[in-house]
Amino acid sequence: MSLFGSLTPYHLLFYSTLLGAELFQTFVNTKICFNALPRSAFTTLQKRIFPFYFRGQTLLIFLSAVTYPQHGLLSLVRQKGDWISYAVAGTTAVLNLFVFEPNTSQTRDAKADPLRSQNARGSEPSPDMQRLRRTFSKNHAMTIHLNLISIGAMLFYGWRLALRLNIDPAQ
Predict the structure, then answer these.
(1) pLDDT < 70 stretches in the chain
(2) Which stretches are transmembrane (predicted)?
């Protein structure tokens, strides 16, 4: 099969872009920004980056799955370890994209409302603010954990993919 007729180069491109983006955003970009930016700037940046990141992650998982060699999804479903990795990564990415990231953003924005911030005494957070903080923490923790599960699934798939590579050292 010619280079342009094979799904393999596209699959490797989409998969490597996905894994690289996941690892870079999760372990490099977020840590650097957290350490280098004031809290308000970090929060503003993150609320702009993460919806884009989760859309890109979901799209790249899909594109990587549909370009699975040799015949796309038909070939993928025949490889149990591979389709399970994609199912796990796809499910966690979709949950982050449509459930937990929007819930995190919504509660973060609600927490910013100064009228909710303190109770009548003014010295401690109001019960409404305490509830919002707990809700935000739960949703934010879910985005983090689901993202790590997606990365783990794609690393597992990458290991399986690497084991199938046939590299001839004589060439």
Answers:
(1) 1-4, 114-123, 171
(2) 12-32, 52-71, 83-100, 141-159
Rounded CA-CA distance 158/156 in Å is 5
Task: Answer yes or no: is 170 within a domain.
Answer: no
Instruction: Give the total number of structural domains in the chain.
Output: 1
User: Does residue 1 fall inside a structural domain?
Assistant: no
Sort residue 99 into left (φ over 0), alpha (ψ -120 to 50) or beta.
alpha
Is there a domain that residue 3 lies in?
no
Under 8 Å CB-to-CB from 7, ≥6 apart: which residues?
67, 68, 69, 70, 71, 72
Residue 93 makes CB contacts below 8 A (sequence gap 6+) with 54, 57, 58, 61, 146, 150
User: Taking the mean position of all CA atoms in its chain, how far away is CA 90?
Assistant: 9
List CB contacts of 64: < 8 A, sequence separation 6 or more: 11, 14, 15, 18, 86
